[in-house]
Structure formats: structure tokens, C-alpha cells
Amino acid sequence: VHPVYADLPTTIFEVMSGLARETGAINLGQGFPDEPGPEAVRRKAAEEAINGYNQYPPMRGLPELRRAVAAHYARFQGLDLDEAEVTVTSGATEALAAAFLSLVSPGDEVVLFQPLYDAYLPIVRRCGGIPKLARLEPPHFRITRETLDGVFTPKTRLVVLNNPVNPAATIFADEDLALLAEYCVAHDAIAVCDEVWEQIVFDGRLFKPLIAFPGMRERTVKIGSAGKMFALTGWKVGFLCAAPALTKGLAGAHQFLTFTTPPNLQAAVAWGLENSAEWFARMPGDLQRSRDRLAAGLTREGFKVLPAAGTYFLNVDLSASGVAEADRDFCLRAVKDHGVAAIPVSAFYEQDAPTSIVRLCFAKRDETLDAGIERLAAAR
Ligand code: PMP
Ligand code: GLN
Predict the structure, then answer these.
(1) Is the CA virtual torsion 102, 186, 70, 72 positive or negative?
(2) Residues with beta carbon inside 6 Å of ligand 1?
(3) Which of 72, 180, 271, 363 allows an S-S link to 312, with CB 3.0 to 4.6 Å?
(4) Residue 119 CA to ligand 2 centre (angstroms)
């Protein structure tokens, strides 16, 4: 009997969304909006599916999308990517897998920060990578020399950085990124930057990608997601951006993971990136209002909410809210008995997980948020 690889558990997002579907609960767990996303972009996808090209597109992505991604990052982040440095993937999830498969060999050390998104560790381990886990502490989740000295060694091959951070909803300070860049250069390490939330930052903050820091242009793999940019999370169109020497390996892995990504969706995303100035100007403000509505409602009900500088997520500290229950127990009770799904933040830790933080998605209509607040209050 061949053993089944046992370290790939069902993700917490599927577990909680499954329970929400089963119970008919309001889903403030998995991060997805309940608005349908920009209509013009969806119409473009439909038009392309009917009248466009629907056979295998080029392996690295439609040229117009690769150009549009490079132009988008020039516009919003001042980057100078060439279209040849962009590879289109089936979501950021595939981009992450392609990055790990092409960059991690057995015995390589991989630095990761906790809390950590759940798609990283299983694939890093499957590639034979040795995780070196640093822990960032609330409320500011700063990267310090002390943190980095504890995990960087002469065997460090890769650093995985998520910014803005899911689930903490924080954005790293420029000086922390500069420090991380300094360590990457000193250790000749490559950075895999999961920046899928780059467009969703609040309170007038500007997002600065790690690839823009000194010494990082040639050693960074920047990952983005059209699903997040256009609030179309089911589309699974992602981007890998990296210097040519890295892109060669990334594209090599991508061709045996999915090879290509649906061409109508690629064409619609390309069109969207070129024609959505108004959407990009409005979306963060709309989400910020939703964040504030959820935060105010929960605060009114006696919950202690943590600051959220970006992403779709607001965290609640149960113990500071007077709820003496572990996050997982609270989330199971909330979905089963009170009709509201949330995500226990302990799922984002490998070791010494905090057990009193619960993550809520606020990318929802006002009435969904209001009903969620009421149900969470009943679960207190
Ligand atoms: N990384 C992070 C940090 C995410 O939050 C998500 C999805 N929410 C992904 C990757 C996956 O993105 P995609 O849906 O494009 O695969
Ligand atoms: N990234 C989304 C979240 O954090 C979910 C994506 C997924 O289901 N894998 O909720």
C-alpha cells in the first residue's frame, strides 16, 4: 500500500465555507466579495468566450495581458517590468507553487513569517525545503534584525513575504522592507513576494513592493492576482513577475502545472487593467467604508477589533472582548448555532498559535455586514 501524502489537510477556507454552505450561514470567513465585480470586465470575458479565441493561448500568457500587467505596475508602483518578465498563471496559488517548484531544492532553507498564508508551507515542504519560521508580533508585526538573525543562515535560499498581510491586515513599513532586502542581498537569497492585496490598502497609504528596494530587482519574484484586483476571486488569473533568469525557471514549472489559463479571462483582465482607472480609484475607499461599518458595529456590541490597514479582513480579539473560548471553538459554534462563518487565525500558525483571534471578511454589502454583526453579537 502506498502512503498518501498526509501533510495536505483541507484548508480552513474550504472547511468554513463548506460549513457555511451546509448551514446556510452568512459567510464572513473565506475572503470573497458579495458584489459581482466590474460589469464591463465580466462582459468582456463573456464576449471573448462567445466570439474570441478559446483554444490554448501562449504558455506564458496572452501578450496583451503581459503588457497590461507591466503597464499596470509602472502606473501604480513605478516599476519598469518588461512584458517578457511577466508570466500569467491560474491564480496566485499556482504562481506560488510554480515559484517554490522552480526555486526550492531538497535541503534549501526557506524563511517564512508567521502568521502565514496556508498555501506556502505544504508545497515548500513537498519540494524538500526546510522551513525557518520567524514570528511577527501583534499589533505592529514589525520585521527586526533580531527576527531575521534568528532565521537567516548560510543555507537560506528563499524568503517568502506576504504584504499586505493576510490575515493580520497589516502593511510592512518601508524600513522593515529595506531591512529584509538588506538580508536577502547579504545572504544571496531570493524573495517570493505574495502581493495579492497590493491594490487594497486604506487610509491613503501607498503600497511599495519589495522588488523596488535596493538590490531586489534581480532577486524578487513578485506575485499578483487579478481575482483580488477586480473582486473576481473565482477567476484565478495570477501573475509572476521576475527578472529573465528567474522567469525562465518559473515558466518551466508553470508549463507542467497548468500550462495555460483560460484565454477569455486573460483577455478580459488585460482589457480591465487598461480601462479601469475609475474602479481602482474607487475600490479601496468602498472597502474602507465596509471595514469601518463592521468595526463600528462590532465595537458597539462589545468586541475588541484590531486595526486593518489593507486586505478584506478585520480581526477580532476574543479574549479582549470578554469571550473565553478558543478561536476554533468560537468559529464552529458561530457557524453552527448562530449562522455566521469566520476564520480562526490559529490556522495561520505552524507553532505556538495565538488562540483568541478571529478573522472576518468585510468585503460585503451593508446588509450582510449588519446581519453578521447581529449574529456575532448573539454568539458572544
Ligand atoms: N495569497 C494570499 C495571501 C491570499 O490571500 C490569496 C487569496 N485570498 C492567494 C494568495 C490566492 O490568490 P488566487 O485566488 O489568485 O489564487
Ligand atoms: N485567500 C482567501 C482567504 O484568505 C481564500 C482563498 C482560498 O480559499 N484559498 O480567505
Answers:
(1) positive
(2) 31, 91-93, 117, 119, 162, 166, 194, 196, 225, 227, 233, 236, 238
(3) 363
(4) 9
* Type of residue found at 16: M
26-37 pLDDT, tens digit per residue, is 999 999 999 999
Residue 117 lies in a domain: yes
ipTM: 0.97
Closest CA to 28 of 366, 369, 374: 369
Containing structural domain, residue 330 = 12-30+278-379
d(CA 80, CA 71): 8
Residue 2: pLDDT band (50, 70, 90) is low
Mean pLDDT of 311-338: 97
* Ligand 1 geometric centre to CA of 31 (Å): 9
Taking residue 325's Cβ as centre, other Cβ atoms within 10 Å add up to 18
48 and 98 together in one domain: yes
In the chain, alpha helices (H): 12-23, 39-51, 63-77, 91-103, 121-126, 145-149, 174-186, 226-229, 244-257, 263-275, 277-300, 327-338, 366-379
Q: Which three cell numbers stand for residue 167?
A: 490575515
Ligand nearest to the backbone CA of 164: 1
Q: Looking at residue 283, which CATH number applies to its domain?
A: 3.90.1150.10
Residue count of the chain:
380
Residue nearest to ligand 2 atom 4, measured at CA: 31
Express each pLDDT in 69-93 by its tens digit: 999 999 999 999 999 999 999 999 9
Which residue, 230, 258, 201, 181, is CA-closest to 33? 230
